[in-house]
Amino acid sequence: MYSYKLLKPDGRPLTLYSRYPIAENIIATSPSNEPVQANPHLRWHPLRGEWVAYASHRQGRTFMPPPEYNPLAPTTKPEFPTELPQGKYDVAVFDNRFPSMAQTAHDPPKCIVETLPANGACEVVVFAQNAQASLSSLELEHLDLLLEVWGDRTRVLGANPQIQYVLPFENKGVEVGVTLHHPHGQIYAYPFTPPVPARMLSMQQEYYEKHRRGLLQDLIQKEIADNQRIIYQDEYAIAFVPVCARYPYEVWIAPKEPVGTFMDLTPEQRWGLAKALKTVTLKYDGLWNRPFPYLMAWFQAPTDGLAHPEAHLHAEFFPPYRTSERLKYLAGTELAAGMFANDALPEEKAKELQAVVVNIEEPISA
User: Which pathway does it operate in (predicted)?
Assistant: First the structure.
């Protein structure tokens, strides 16, 4: 992996990543030269026991621009600069212009509940320069690089003592609220471990202390033995519809042997995850022969400097559709009670995905 660091005209850092050497004459660009003035803060929710972020400046963020004003495409006209410069590279990472958290956040307002500055980080990860690309269309080598990039960002962000948890994710499709269609994801780096991964880590720690083995590690072995819901597997990685899926087309991807973070992956594990990632996204797109929306989140160990033998790096996909024409809305029991009601058996949806024939070695024309 090659990388090249630059500074945008507005002061935000930009890092370019590539499978090949990057020319050092690339000039960073930005849609605006004005420094980002975001100052988000946190307020404590006493009934739920969790923090809520407030970032009112995000109301003005870019919303569904026409293709010719795509801020994530490489700049073609100097008078209309975008977030990306011209040049030969594969992946770009930069600070979000409209962050929900910022490492420079300070002086939160006084409230009747506890408040704190939202001292985290929000990065944008542009997966490819081609605006028509998607994870399913990228070459395996490109996906392997992306996994390595997530590891490098975990290392860089996690080195800051303010940061306790690094969460890479992708929102894909208008159905999940995407406002820019260019293939990209985000990384949120939190000053604490957020509620969902904290709950999962608690369950994993309890299991590990009792069995001296990983909870997800053993679940994966049970899924392999059951052999009903597997979407992809090789020696190092696996993708499957979990037996406990909350969403009809939910899929998990993981290395078979537990590693805590992207930084801990062996080259063989990373390559296996790249193949699993391409298989799943190709099957999603092939299911109804159209781009398939989802939220993809990667869960890993906290960056708090402590040992986490219980943690097992993995991705969870949350697709919003329950059939080709019907969305799975989160309503009363999901939002109010926190208990999901799935309208379909995981085994049924796994069979649908298993039936989609894909070729992960064949390049896809975007």
Answer: Carbohydrate metabolism; galactose metabolism
